[in-house]
Design brief:
The complex is a heterodimer of chains A (424) and B (160).
Chain A: H1 18-23, H2 28-36, H3 40-50, H4 62-67, E1 78-83, H5 92-99, H6 101-115, E2 119-124, H7 129-144, E3 160-165, H8 175-182, E4 206-210, H9 211-223, H10 225-231, E5 239-246, E6 252-257, E7 260-261, H11 262-268, E8 278-282, E9 291-292, H12 293-296, E10 300-301, H13 303-308, E11 317-322, H14 327-341, H15 347-364, H16 371-383, H17 391-416
Parallel strand pairs in A: 1-2, 1-4, 2-3, 5-11
Antiparallel strand pairs in A: 5-6, 7-10, 8-9, 8-11
Chain B: H1 5-15, H2 27-38, H3 43-52, H4 57-66, E1 78-83, H5 86-89, H6 96-104, E2 110-111, E3 117-122, E4 134-136, E5 140-142, H7 147-158
Parallel strand pairs in B: 1-3
Antiparallel strand pairs in B: 1-4, 2-3, 4-5
Helix pairs in contact in B: 1-2, 2-3, 3-4
């Protein structure tokens, strides 16, 4: 069994509680930093050395992101955590909040100490109310233990942390839309630059990281960046929580070293249900390119290997599609999702996502033409790269990759006005 | 109109999380709390929340109409939001949406004639490992929803 950084709490009683977290070295990193008054430069250097990359999907190096914050800026700064996971296939942050909320709190505390921020917010996805309440309870527990609030552990360091509840908008997972949402507005992404590091929440310098990213920080400080890096592979440091969904025997979250062969992950998830055959896999959440099974079976699960194979690690949301699923209908549902969730701010996305959905829908209705496949490619190409945020690209990617890898299935549907035999 | 003292206390707690001059930050929670008390958000309710938070009424209306979980029309006593997105669809043998439509005799976006249930189609809830999932009254997540579990859920909701 390989070492776990975050879900190791499941090996001890009462996961989710402070007492449980203390069993795995919880808050030791914060205590060490406060007692030894470790310099911000040292902490950032350690995070950089760890090779930790943003776990929300973009994979941006965390240490580098922290270094962009003007540390000597005198005014208010903020630390924000993005627990707004709602991309089809994602469900790891929910389990982190359920089982190890204190690792997120400690990670945010360390970030606040490093960057000179005194207030933080954790934005939690609207649909997971029970987890929102769990996080509120964890905050209460931390406050009662003197780990949050004024003069933490007598060090003179102040940090307060609050939970903010979303209410059903995928777009708020985009970091600047999320900031707008905390400000009590529609979640529409901001034009960048300026980036949140200089103009973030309420116009103040802000670091915003994913839940899993923050949850890794305490381990890195306790054990050193090098140790974390060695858990994974070069440029892909650490472990990663993969959320495995679809027709497998044991869907769920698996924390494994980055670089694990996909075959091994599939075996951990119990293999395909009822002995079915894997047909395709979306390895990082619905916005990354789908890959056919034969390509997947030879990849390792890390940022670089998946990029080389023509997809992305994304948030590590592994959607497994078996040979009884109709890829045309699958694409229809994903296209509807992006159409529904487009915030409407940029014309190529607002109009283009609807156009994509309507074309795929008419194919499913039996009214498609072969030229529609070229039209889909043309429309999607004209959305990608032409919008303020990445939702436009995210809508274009499934269309392009589904047609690229499963063109014959689309042609069959158009010609016969139905799915392949035996597919749903 | 006003909201109950309990709801106002909940809203005040949300307001306290943000800087004094940023009361608007509490609008999402305030609208949720109002909806929980009243079932849906009328213009009057939205205006009350806006005034309470000292923000423009139109800005509160923008928020109420932007996020999917606010109800802008009256709904049944229980709102059942079924995820139909791809990971939940992959468990097509247990199509929770189709089962509920047949069982309740209504389609998505409709309310049963006795006013008990409103059925809604939801987007990804971030719980795909538990597919198929549905959300009851925006607050309770129900996992691995087979027909048997749906029957049990409805029986529990029917209890007085």
């Amino acid at each position: 069994m390989s070492e776990k950084v975050i879900l190791n709490v499941l090996d001890h009683p009462n996961p989710g509680t402070l007492a449980n977290y203390e069993q795995v070295g919880g808050y030791q990193a914060l205590k060490k930093i406060l007692a030894e008054k470790i310099q911000a430069e040292t902490i950032i250097a350690e995070v950089k050395a760890s090779g930790l990359r943003g776990r929300g999907g973009a994979g941006f190096p965390t240490g580098l992101k922290w270094s962009f914050i003007p540390r000597h800026f005198e005014g208010t700064k903020y630390v924000v955590c993005n627990t707004d996971e709602g991309e089809p296939g994602t469900f790891k942050d929910r389990d982190i909040i359920r089982y190890n909320p204190h690792s997120v709190i400690e990670g945010m505390l360390i970030c606040g100490y490093t960057l000179g921020a005194k207030v933080g917010y954790n934005y939690i996805h609207g649909e997971i109310w029970a987890e929102y309440e769990m996080f509120e309870r964890a905050l209460e527990e931390a406050r009662a233990a003197g780990l949050l609030g004024k003069n933490i552990l007598g060090s003179g360091f102040d940090f307060e942390l609050h939970a903010h509840h979303g209410f059903g908008a995928y777009i708020c997972g985009e970091e600047t839309a999320l900031l707008e949402s905390i400000e009590g507005k529609k979640g529409q992404p901001r034009f960048k630059p300026p980036f949140p590091a200089s103009f973030g929440l309420y116009g103040r310098p802000t670091v915003i990281n994913n839940t899993e990213t923050f949850a890794n920080i305490p381990y890195i400080i306790r054990n050193g960046g090098q140790k974390f890096l060695e858990l994974g592979k070069p440029n892909n440091g650490g472990t990663k929580i993969f959320s495995v969904s679809g027709q497998v025997n044991k869907p769920g979250n698996y924390e494994v070293p980055l670089g694990l062969p996909f075959r091994d992950l599939l075996a951990m998830a119990g293999g395909m249900r009822e002995g079915r055959t894997l047909k395709a896999c979306i390895p990082g959440g619905s916005s990354v390119p789908v890959l056919p099974a034969d390509v997947m079976m030879d990849v390792t699960m890390d940022y670089d290997a998946l990029a080389k194979a023509g997809s992305m690690l994304g948030a590590g949301s592994v959607i497994l599609i078996d040979d009884r699923i109709c890829m045309v209908r699958a694409l229809e549902r994903l296209s509807y999702f992006y159409f529904e969730e487009s915030c409407g701010q940029c014309t190529p996305c607002r109009e283009g996502t609807g156009w994509l959905y309507r074309i795929v829908h008419r194919i499913v209705q039996g009214n498609g033409k072969l030229e529609d496949l070229d039209l889909l490619m043309d429309v999607s190409t004209n959305i990608g790269g032409r919008t303020i945020c990445a939702l436009g690209d995210a809508a274009a990617t499934p269309v392009q990759s589904f047609i690229k890898h499963f063109r014959s299935e689309f042609e069959h549907f158009i010609e016969h006005k139905r799915s392949l035999d035996g597919c749903h | 109109m006003s909201l109950s003292a309990a709801s106002l206390a909940k809203i005040d707690r949300e307001v306290s999380k943000y800087p004094t001059e940023q009361k608007q930050s509490a609008v999402m929670s305030a609208l949720r709390i109002a909806q929980q008390e009243l079932g849906w958000l009328s213009n009057e309710t939205i205006q009350f929340v806006a005034d309470y938070l000292e923000m423009p009424r139109i800005a509160a209306y923008e928020v109420a109409t932007f996020y999917n979980m606010y109800r802008m029309h009256p709904v049944g006593k229980h709102c059942l939001t079924v995820c139909t997105n791809l990971p939940c669809r992959l468990t097509w043998e247990n199509d929770a949406g189709a089962y509920l439509k047949q069982k309740l005799g209504i389609g998505f976006g409709e309310t049963t004639s006795d006013g008990k249930y409103t059925l809604l189609e939801g987007e990804c809830m971030g719980v795909c490992g538990d597919a198929p999932v549905l959300l009851v009254n925006n607050h309770k997540m129900c996992s691995f929803m087979t027909p048997e579990k749906i029957d049990q859920m409805l029986a529990d909701l029917d209890k007085p």
